[in-house]
Amino acid sequence: MGSALGTGVNSRTVVLVEGISDQVALHAIAERRGRDLDADGISIVAMQGATNIGHFLELFGPRGLAVGLGGLCDAGEEGMFRRGLERAGIGRNLTRADMESLGFYVCVADLEDELIRSLGAASVQDVIDAQGELGSFRTMQKQPAQRGRTIDQQLRRFMGTRGGRKIRYARLLVDALELTKVPRPLDRVLAHV
Length: 193
Hints:
52% of the residues lie in helices and 11% in strands. The protein is α/β, with parallel strands linked by helices. The protein has a four-stranded parallel sheet, with helices on both faces. Helix 2 links the parallel strand 1 and strand 2. Helix 2 runs parallel beside helix 10 and helix 6 runs parallel beside helix 10.
C-alpha cells in the first residue's frame, strides 16, 4: 500500500481503483487517446482491493490532501464505495447517479466484463489466440463447471485463472478496442478527471 500512497501524494487529482488491472486499463486508454495523465497531474491509484477505500478517501479526500477525486469499482463493491464516500464526508444517501456526479463509476460486473462486452467474444478470443493461450481457454471451456456458462462468462473466468493474467489482458484488450467503444465507466471516469 505504501507505493500506492506515494503515487498520488503530489497529484492534483487521484482516481481510486480496486486493482492493478483497472489501473493498467485506464492508463492504456489515456495513452491511446494521446493523454499524458502525469503531465495533467492525475494519478490512478490501485488500492489493493475495495476494502481499502475508506483509508484512501481519508488520505486524499477533504479531510486529507483534498485533491480532486474519481474512482472506478466493480458492481459488487458499489456499496462499499458508497459507504466510504459518505463516511469521508463526500455526500449523503448517495445513489449511483450521485456517485457518478462525484466522479465514481461502477462497472456492470467488473473490468473484464466491461472489456469483453465492448470487444465481443470473437475479438477477445482473437486476442487470447495471439497470446498463444487459445488452447488453454478451450481446455477450460471443457471443464464441467464451465459447460453451462455463456462464452462471455467463460472468457471472464479465464482472465482470472492464472496470476497476472487480468493485468496482462487489461492492456491487450484495451489495445484491441476501437476508441469509440471504450466501456462507459472507463470512458466517464477519464472524462471526469
